[in-house]
Write a structure and sequence with these properties.
Length: 200
């Protein structure tokens, strides 16, 4: 029973450390390496796809070339009004083109019955959503960048330390089993065995 509890505790600790490390990687490491931007969703207009409090990670968009590669179904972050820095993250439901071939996008939140008012142009676009982490935005708003990076280092160190501790324990247990065998301490060297070439 003790062995079973120890194994369960070990599995739980490994799962917890792995989950924390994966969360920190998703909201800090991957965006940092890829040049993407993490944002927190504060409303429920994209539920149930993106729950309130999620963190969306967006690839920055800039100009007509970036806008040209977007299509229906993409989830984008944009500024609805030029004089307002508030950002909205909604799905593209329709694409129209003007006489010069420049796209304009009709957007709608998944939870909304009607499309957003007005079309979104390349000037308003800020990012393409690459992925989201449910409810991680709440935690992200409580931590500054240095605290997030410190958490990554701490989680990595904890995983490494735990793995090292397990390896040392396994070596110690193996040595204890070898020395506890009957006659292991008093056994002399193995007798020599004469060998002869095989007959042809």
């Amino acid at each position: 029973m003790t062995t079973l509890l120890r194994r369960a505790r070990h599995a739980l600790l490994v799962a917890l450390l792995t989950a924390v490390s994966a969360l920190l990687a998703a909201i800090v490491v991957v965006p940092l390496l890829a040049g993407w931007v993490p944002l927190t969703v504060l409303s429920g207009s994209m539920e149930p796809t993106v729950p309130t409090g999620s963190q969306v990670v967006v690839e920055p968009l800039d100009g007509e070339d970036d806008a040209a590669r977007l299509g229906v179904g993409d989830v984008v972050t944009f500024m609805p009004r030029p004089d307002d820095a508030t950002l909205v993250t909604h799905r593209i439901v329709q694409v129209a083109y003007d006489g010069e071939g420049k796209p304009a996008f009709t957007t709608r939140g998944d939870a909304n019955a009607a499309p957003d008012e007005g079309e979104v142009t390349s000037v308003q676009l800020r990012g393409l959503v690459k992925y989201h982490v449910p409810y991680a935005g709440w935690a992200a708003t409580l931590l500054d960048q240095e605290q997030k990076r410190g958490g990554i280092v701490l989680a990595a160190a904890a995983l490494f330390g735990y793995a090292l501790w397990q390896a040392v324990g396994a070596l110690r247990d193996g040595r204890a089993r070898r020395t506890s065998r009957p006659g292991a301490e008093n056994a002399g060297p193995a007798p020599a065995v004469d060998t002869v070439p095989a007959s042809r």
